[in-house]
Automatic annotation (TrEMBL):
InterPro entries: FlgN-like, FlgN-like_sf. The lineage of its organism: Bacteria, Bacillati, Bacillota, Clostridia, Lachnospirales. GO terms for biological process: bacterial-type flagellum assembly. Residues 148-171 are annotated as: Disordered. Residues 160-171 have a biased composition (Basic and acidic residues). Keywords: Bacterial flagellum biogenesis. This is FlgN protein. The keyword Nucleotide-binding does not apply.
Length: 171
């Protein structure tokens, strides 16, 4: 059981490391979104995908360890949350403290990651709203009088085009 718990701690530590890397990428992404650097944003997204695939692999490994621990202690894997695993380690202060520290760090990192990701999502939504506004403004300006010319006696004759296309297809 001790080696299983050690493997669990190692797996969770590795997961925590990747989540911290994701958090740093998310923070960098905030600046990149504000700076409107689409090239850098693409690179960060690719790095996030790599980390996400590594996290998925570690998550499967962690689930396997939970299955193994559940088999050894004759409990359902569904019952074995981190809090329950920590409680099972009564009398093993070193392992209990290590697992508890990782749990707290994971919870804190995940909370920060959620806040930064929500902020990034809001920034992206604002950028998309701005783009939509700009496109609508361009379309609207196309329907306004394009030219004005004077007729005899000083009256203005307006010539309005009904062409609401955004791009000139003749080019």
């Amino acid at each position: 059981m001790a080696s299983l718990m050690e493997e669990m701690v190692n797996t969770l530590s590795e997961e925590l490391n990747y989540y911290k890397q994701l958090l740093e990428l998310a923070k960098t992404k905030t600046k990149v979104i504000v700076d409107n650097d689409t090239e850098q944003l693409q690179q960060l997204t690719e790095q996030e995908q790599i980390l996400a695939s590594r996290l998925l692999r570690l998550e499967k490994k962690r689930e396997e360890k939970i299955q193994d621990i559940a088999l050894v202690i004759n409990k359902s894997p569904d019952e074995l949350t981190l809090n329950n695993l920590i409680a099972l380690l009564k009398g093993q202060e070193k392992e209990q403290d290590a697992l508890n520290a990782i749990r707290e760090d994971l919870v804190g990192t995940m909370a920060q990651l959620k806040v930064v990701n929500n902020q990034n999502q809001e920034l992206i939504n604002q950028a998309l709203d701005y783009i939509d506004f700009t496109i609508n403004a361009i379309r609207t300006s196309k329907s306004l009088p394009q030219t004005a010319s004077y007729e005899g006696r000083g009256t203005v004759a307006e010539h309005q085009t009904n062409d609401n296309r955004m791009f000139d297809a003749k080019q």
